[in-house]
Amino acid sequence: MDRSFKARLERRFGDQLTGPVRQRHDETEVRIGPGDVVPVITALHDEPEFSFEFLADLCGVDTGEVMQVVYHLWSPTTPDWLRVIADGLSREDPRVPSVTFMWKGAEWMEREAYDMFGITFEGNRDLRRIYMPPDYQSFPLRKDFYLADDAARSPGAGVRPMEQTHVPRDTVATGKVRRLSPGT
Amino acid sequence: MTATTPRPDVTGSHHTSSLGDDAFAGEPDDPRVQLDRDLGVFEPVPPYPPRTEREAEFYTLRDGEMFLNMGPQHPSTHGVLRVVLKLDGEKVVDLDPVLGYLHRGVEKLCENADYHHSIAYLDPLEYVSSLFCEWPGVMAFEKLLDVQVPRRAEYIRVLSAELNRIASHSLFLGWMALDLGGLTPILWSFIERDTIVEMLASLTGQRMLFNYFRIGGVNGDLNHEFMSRLGDWMSHATEQVEAGNTLLNENEIFVRRMRGLGKIDSKTALRMTMSGPNLRATGVPFDMRRAHPYSAYPELDFDIPTRQEGDCLARYLLRMDEIKQSLRIIDQCLHQMPDGPVMAKLPRLLRPRPGRAYAGIEAPRGQYAVYAISDGTDQPFRMRIHDPSFLHLQSVGLMMPGHLVADTMAIMASLDPIMGGVDK
User: For the segment A7-20, what is each residue's pLDDT rounded down to a tens digit?
Assistant: First the structure.
């Protein structure tokens, strides 16, 4: 845990953060609004104080309430992983700016997040499905997408999300969606 | 099969051959329906209008250009990958990999299995280096649970994983040569790999999908059979690795073909988010074992080999250097192996408190990582698997233009993607 790094982040991005900077084990976490992705990522990459040159991971997260896009960055200036969470994307039309202007390699990771969560990355030149067939309609990693499975006929049917299969199509299964408590 | 050919009755009971061939007409299990069906071909151009800027650009032909479909079943694609090539004569202008033929939805499966089960789902991702797939998974869960892994378990993890790295890199050597048309090295590298894999089987119980790492430690302590096999192999390992290297390093056809092929510079490699040997072959000494130390690596002494050229030959030679470093690490592990338990004390049912954890390790192909979110239940809320092969395959498009069709295989092989991991 790099305490001074936390102070540096708070000093530099104070007004752009939408939550407290959190630290646990070897990770530092900041939350920003989707509108601030480009300036924050650019500053983290370009400013010698941070110099986060390596994009370790980019992925989408569905908390059951909102969508998030999570960036993991690595830099020689801190022993911590930096996790940048673009928080509060609407589940109906999640939109976030693409980071392909900085890391061209994020293109496929953004395609994957689009394929699995339906998150639109504005500025990605190639935002089409990558794993699922092109005529596929759903977004499989969303929390209201259930796995069809024989477990539904088991004695424990309906206990776990995997077993709750027979939800009519076009039903908003709000009551059964697994949710992440806000702030996790 | 023509309609007049006599055909054995395969559908059983009420169908008899005396009824003639028409007896099968319209039946759902009519064998002719399967046999006479046109198997079809993959049209390189998709049957719908382009949806993105890049797709429109790729699927527009200029004068003298043509499309060529390669795969999904192609001997050189290391799995089921389809690549659409845009050619000008024999030169590749551009290419568009089409993924998803091996997609199993491992992330979703993990989100619907409990923490111990999820580990088993991780093994078949990069099936030639299974231990490296398990490792970030267990590391992320350990972080969620705040578990301290016993030191002996960390050493055993390093020891077995480095063995697996050698097995993976030896197999790479063979595949690489095979994709260039050389048959001998794969036979030799399989000898090397099988020795290691049998050794790991005596430790873990399985040859390929070891499922050995557990949350909080490893499944079992080192046993006598493993140690004796390891000792036997270590006595001539260096020699054997050298022998394998000279088979190709001094082969003029191989070296001249690989040199300058599929070049990428360090800046582009970082922008393409490449990692592992493919990044180090461009001169960036970036290795997770040193960049973000984990497990027992801070206590071990080893070098991070780099090469400056960034071409196929550099990527190949770099992996050979890495094998030597892995041997060094294994040697140190054996000498420094501490005593003690190999599992932390944990309840059977794990319910980590809500939180997030990210763990990245240095796998044979680059940074392998898992990002896990817990919501306080016994199943991970979100399980993101980051696979280096996926990103390396993406940069083939940058390395390819200007090279020949036959070189696509060489370049792809030099990046060493495993489709099981690419498609998750």
Answer: 888 988 888 888 88
- Any CB–CB contact under 8 A between A156 and chain B? no
**How many structural domains comprise chain B?**
1
Residue A110 maps to a domain: no
| Cβ under 8 Å to A: B residues 264-293 | 268, 270-275, 286, 291-292
What is the value of pTM for the model shown?
Answer: 0.84
Q: Beta strands B82-88 and A27-32: pairing type?
A: unpaired
Residue numbers in A near B54 (CB within 8 A): 125-126
- ipTM attached to this prediction: 0.84
CATH code for the domain in which residue A42 is found: 3.30.460.80
Number of domains present in the structure of chain A: 2
pLDDT tens digits, residue range B12-41? 444 444 444 555 555 555 555 555 555 566
* Structural domain harbouring A157: 144-174
Residue B73: what are its φ and ψ, rounded to 5°? Answer: -100, 95
Chain A environment of B424 (Cβ under 8 Å): 131
A179 touches chain B (CB under 8 A): yes
Residue where the block lists tokens 């790999």? B193
Q: For the residues of B249-274, what is the DSSP string, one character each?
A: HT-HHHHHHHTTSS---HHHHHHTT-
Q: Does B164 fall in a domain?
A: yes
Q: Are B295 and B278 spatial neighbours (Cβ–Cβ below 8 Å)?
A: no
Domain containing B233 equals: 106-423
